Structure formats: C-alpha cells, structure tokens
Amino acid sequence: MRHTSKRARRKQLRRKISAFTAVLRSSQPGIHYTATIHATLTPEPTGLYDPDEVADRVRTALRITAAAAVRDQDPIDLPAAQDICAKQLRRPQELDIPNQVTRVTASVHLDLADEDRAAVKELLTAIRAQGTMDALTRQRTQALAKEFAHPAALLARWLQQPDAHVTQPPDEADLEALARRLRGYPKDRDEPVELQLLNIIRDFLSEFPKEEQKRLLMMLLADGMRAARKPGHADRVDALTKPDPAISGATVVGGGP
C-alpha cells in the first residue's frame, strides 16, 4: 500500500465504489440484468487503509446482495426487480476493514442489455401465443361441456356418427349420467353466482325423474319465494306446475267418442 494523503485515499475509494457495474442472473435462464451500483460508506474509513482493498470488499458484498435480490425476479417485470433490488441495497451492511467497522448502503439502477431485451421480447411473444392457445382450448372445452350437458344433446351428437344404429340408441340412464358429469365440469371462479346456482338446481331436479316429484319440489321453491316476499316469482313457478290448458283441451277433444 502506498502512503498517500487522507484526501487522496478518500477520493480514490469514492471513485471505485461510486458507480460500478454488476451482471446479475434473472429467473429466466440466459437472461441477465445489468446493474449500476452507487455505494456509500458510513462512516468513511480513517487512518491508513488500502482504497483498493476496501473497494473490493464493498463491491463484492453489494454484488452478492444484489444477486440474491433478483435471482428469482422475472425480467419481464423490470420495474419490480428494480424496486426489490434497491430495497435490499438500502439496508446497511456492516463491513469489516482493518482496525474499524463501517456500514455500506447503496442505490442501484437495473437495466437489460440489448441481447437480453431481445430475449425478453421473444419470451413475451411465446407466452402470449401460449396464452391465446390455452384460452381457445378452455373456451372450446367449456362450450362442449355446456352443449352436451343435456341427454338430448348427447343423443343428437351420437346420431350424427357414421356408425350409429338408430334402432339401438344409448341407454337413457347412461346419457343422463354422462350429461350430469358434463354439467359438473369445473367452472371459472369468475362465473356469476346466479349461473352456478342454476346449474346446482338443475342437477338437483334431475335426481327426481318423476313429474309428481318435480312438482312437489317446485311448490317448495315457490313457498320459499313467497317467504322472501317475492310473490311474482312464486306465481311464475306455480304456473310451471300446472298443465298446459291447450294440451289438456286437445286431450279432451281427441278423447271423445
């Protein structure tokens, strides 16, 4: 170590730690951050010390801290990585140097080299394309599940098959069981509660195949609506339990001598 003045040592040390670079790995393999770090020592070293040795310790400590801060950060979200890294480097770290202890803090600016920016752009393009494919697949699946949630729809699709035998249709119970499974297809959590409730009520009613059972359940539902002071809705449910006058009249006319 050369014997230089206190002022010269301080100036040399500040120059070596005021703006140094670091290359930091991101969460995406092959994509790295480029960091410019500005360090501050409090208090500044005193006495005889080697500015190069102190600067090496400062740079090493801060590079390690910055690397740990961003290694799990996605380079797609550069501002978030910047904030997390800056937060870690603002925390004082004790730094042992000969004959004294000082603390180091730092500010940082994160960026991406041109090659890494290009890699992030390619990654975003791939993610968006995959997201579009996933959304379309999910929509098709949901549409098919909704279409075949009724036994009649399943039977109609079966009849469209080239090898279908009209005289030997699938068993009604099998069609109902399959339709029930499709009605239970997982829905998106964002689906309105009303639609989810309708699906539950439909599945519940399907457990009671006899008409008199369905009418009894609908009467109970109408009573609940009246208790909730919604008589208009209750009357509409009651109307569903009554036979169609047109059909009844046609039966009487057709059944005469």
Number of contiguous helices:
10
> What's the N-to-C terminus distance?
127 Å
Number of beta-strand segments: 4
- Widest sheet: strand ordering: 1-2-4-3
Notable traits:
single chain; 257 residues; alpha+beta; 4 strands
Explain what this protein looks like in three dimensions.
There is one protein chain. By secondary structure, the protein is α+β, with helices and mostly antiparallel strands. Helices cover 59% and strands 13% of the residues. It contains ten helices and four strands; from the N terminus they run αββααββααααααα. The protein has helices spanning 6-17, 51-70, 78-90, 114-147, 151-159, 172-183, 193-206, 211-227, 231-241, 245-254; strands at residues 20-25, 32-42, 93-97, 100-111. Strands 1-2-4-3 form a four-stranded antiparallel sheet. A hairpin with a 2-residue loop joins β3 and β4 (100-111). α1 packs parallel to α2 (51-70) and α5 crosses α6 (172-183). The radius of gyration is 37 Å and the shape is elongated. Mean pLDDT is 82; it is low at 250-257.
What is the fold's blueprint, element by element?
Blueprint: H1 6-17, E1 20-25, E2 32-42, H2 51-70, H3 78-90, E3 93-97, E4 100-111, H4 114-147, H5 151-159, H6 172-183, H7 193-206, H8 211-227, H9 231-241, H10 245-254
Antiparallel strand pairs: 1-2, 2-4, 3-4
Helix pairs in contact: 1-2, 2-3, 5-6, 8-9
Structure summary:
The chain has 257 residues and is an alpha+beta fold. The chain has 10 helices and 4 strands, in the order αββααββααααααα.
